[in-house]
Amino acid sequence: MRFVGVLLGLAMGSILWAQGVPRASIAYDAERDAYYIADELVVGLEPDAPTALAQQAMLWVGNLRDLQMSLQAGVVRIETGLNPDSVREFLQSLPGVRYVERNYLAFACNTPNDPLFTQQWGLAKIQATQAWANWQPQRTVYIAILDTGIDATHPDLSQKMRRHSNGSIYGYNAIHNTSNAHDVHGHGTHCAGIAAAHTHNGVGIAGVAAWNANLASTHTAVQLMPVKVLNDQGYGTFADIARGITWAADNGAHIISLSLGGTTGTQQLQDAVNYAWNRGCLVVAAAGNNGSNAPFYPAYYPNALAVAATDPSDTLTSFSQYGSWVDIAAPGEAILSTVPGGGYERWSGTSMACPHVAGAAALLWSAAPSLSNQQIRNALENNADPYQPYWFGGIGEGKGRLNLARALQAALQMENTPSVSQLSLSASSVQAGGTVRGTVTLNRAAGAGGAVVQLSSSNPNLAWCAPAITIPQGQTTGVFTIATNASGMGSVTFTASAGGVSRSASLQVVSPFRVQS
């Protein structure tokens, strides 16, 4: 029992940390579907644990807090720079250590107190409450609602609006080039409530990007930006929509929600969608309500996430567009949400499905801020639930109806997995038969076991490299060699992929008599 005295001394030495240091980062354990404190371990000891050895071990790996003498256990805070998995293995190998485990988190089993929450079938279908219980936002994410505007005075929306320092609404009227984006029609207000209504405020409904019972400030983690591109009669020009998209992308929007569209496209509109995507935004668009597989724009564009609508039985609605170009589905029939003047109504359409996905994307991105727009999109699409196609229709192969809980798990797992941030070559051109060095850079250090990066060549007969490299634990860069055909010339593209992200670089193989660098 002398070991308890050692633990107490170490705990006293770390008392300043326990009282004054900000909350540690939270990590996700995919195998157990649980969250834990990333830099803490719980260590339990046998009654006769060797005192000197245990004391030395604790001094090596960190400080101790939260001593529980009756349980012969304590929480070790791991020193910065040490790998938690390696520390865990080291401590578990010591004589007298009964167990070493992660410091997992528990959550209150609450549901929001919004009186109309039980009437929101869509939230139950996408497993919103399960996602909310595990949601730990790390930053504020902005959703730009490009529509008829938003009634920012609505009691379920007023606290969810992005505002300037003087309290005015951070919005834009693309029709009149002003800051007045007030909604008279109602469509934009309805979409805004679906995505991010103020949740657990005792009023009305809950939004998709909503709330965690244990974190009082989560209602500010996702904020709305009204961008008026449709007039008070509910229609607008593609030119104004394009202007609204670029304004949102230039003014900090992370998600651009487009519950609108038409049966033809324009180059300007596609350029605007591409502009937003290339600036890191995720563009979410309604697939249309014509009940056919005909393209609907801007949802049809590759850099837009096209959203079909499902009903309470998980069937594609009769009005929804469908086809291989549609990326995901979400609840879109009889959806209860906010309308101007403080009221609530049930509306149907892919317009209602779209903000379900926009709100989901915002929730994911606030919890996993290092992910790219492509990674957020992948998390949403690749973790959807199957649904029953309407008649012979359907959406993209392998796609389905939004599952917020599973998408959040996937995003958090990607957040903790290194991905490729850059691929560079030592030269842009090389003599035929020569070699070039490639360098892969990760967005974070490789974890235990290293990070495997897949490599590929667009023309392996002309230039080639190893199919993969492993970047060692603790490192962020890895190198590989590109060899070239002595009798070939031309252009080849190399791609490096890891963590759901790919980066490419081009190489020109030239005649031995001419070199360009």
Top-tier CATH class of the largest domain: Alpha Beta
Going by CATH, the homologous superfamily of the largest domain would be Peptidase S8/S53 domain
Query: What Rg, in angstroms, do the CA atoms define?
Result: 27 Å
As a percent range, the share of strand residues is 25-35%
Number of strands: 23
- CATH fold field value of the largest domain: Rossmann fold
Which spans of ≥5 residues are poorly predicted at pLDDT below 50?
1-24
**CATH-defined architecture of the largest domain:** 3-Layer(aba) Sandwich
* Overall helicity: 10-25%
Question: How would you portray this structure in words?
Answer:
The structure is a single chain. The protein is an alpha/beta fold and 517 residues long. It folds into 3 domains: 2-104, Alpha-Beta Plaits, CATH 3.30.70.80; 138-397, 3-Layer(aba) Sandwich (Rossmann fold), CATH 3.40.50.200; 420-510, Immunoglobulins (Immunoglobulin-like), CATH 2.60.40. The protein contains 12 helices and 23 strands. The protein has helices at residues 2-13, 15-20, 51-61, 84-92, 121-125, 128-133, 187-196, 238-250, 267-278, 350-367, 373-381, 404-415; strands at 26-29, 34-45, 62-68, 73-78, 97-104, 141-147, 172-173, 222-228, 255-258, 282-286, 304-310, 328-331, 335-339, 343-347, 420-425, 429-431, 435-442, 451-457, 463-464, 468-471, 477-484, 490-498, 501-510. β7 (172-173), α7 (187-196) and β8 form a beta-alpha-beta unit. α8 runs parallel beside α9 (267-278) and α10 packs parallel to α12 (404-415). The radius of gyration is 27 Å and the shape is globular. The protein starts with a helix and ends in a 7-residue tail after the last strand.
